[in-house]
């Protein structure tokens, strides 16, 4: 399985970046080897997601806050069509607000950065 983690080190006021090695190990325990893709500027997660999809990703994990999740989802589509409809997405919330998580009534344990 080809797994990519689109990771925002500034999520959670920078706490996600400090925890990245720990998070990466936990993700690999669950999903096997992953290719980490670290964002460097606003909008970068969208670009990294498209690249991962074009490289044949089976799974993309959005690791960050609400903005990261939004950018990853925006990268998923081109001309209102999914770039690779067979690819799955997972979310590891590490932001400070986690509105996406709250709106879905997901358990917040261990998810904040």
Verbal overview:
By secondary structure, this protein is of the alpha/beta class. It has one domain (3-103): Rossmann fold, CATH 3.40.50. 37% of the residues lie in helices and 23% in strands. It has helices at residues 15-18, 20-31, 44-54, 66-75, 99-103, and strands at residues 3-7, 34-38, 59-64, 77-78, 81-82, 88-93. The longest helix is centred in the N-terminal third of the chain and has 12 residues, at 20-31. It is globular and about 35 Å long. The N and C termini lie far apart (27 Å).
Search tags:
about 110 residues; two-stranded antiparallel ribbon; Rossmann fold; about 25% strand; globular; about 35% helix; four-stranded parallel sheet; alpha/beta
Summarize the structure.
The protein is an alpha/beta fold. The protein has helices spanning 15-18, 20-31, 44-54, 66-75, 99-103, and strands at 3-7, 34-38, 59-64, 77-78, 81-82, 88-93.
Give a topology summary.
Blueprint (H helix, E strand, L loop, with lengths): L2 E5 L7 H4 L1 H12 L2 E5 L5 H11 L4 E6 L1 H10 L1 E2 L2 E2 L5 E6 L5 H5 L10
Helix pairs in contact: 3-4
The number of distinct structural domains comes to 1
Largest sheet: 4 strands, parallel
Taken as a percent bin, the fraction of beta residues is 15-25%
Order of SSEs, N→C? EHHEHEHEEEH
* CATH fold assignment: Rossmann fold
Lateral strand order in the biggest sheet: 2-1-3-6
The number of distinct helices, counting runs of at least 4 residues, comes to: 5
Highest-level CATH class: Alpha Beta
* CATH architectural category: 3-Layer(aba) Sandwich
Distance from first to last alpha carbon: 27 Å
Count of individual beta strands: 6
Gross morphology is globular
**CATH level-four homologous superfamily name:** Probable inorganic polyphosphate/atp-NAD kinase, domain 1
The level of helicity is: 25-40%
Whole-number mean pLDDT:
86
Unreliable sequence segments: none
Radius of gyration: 13 Å
The SS-based structural class is alpha/beta
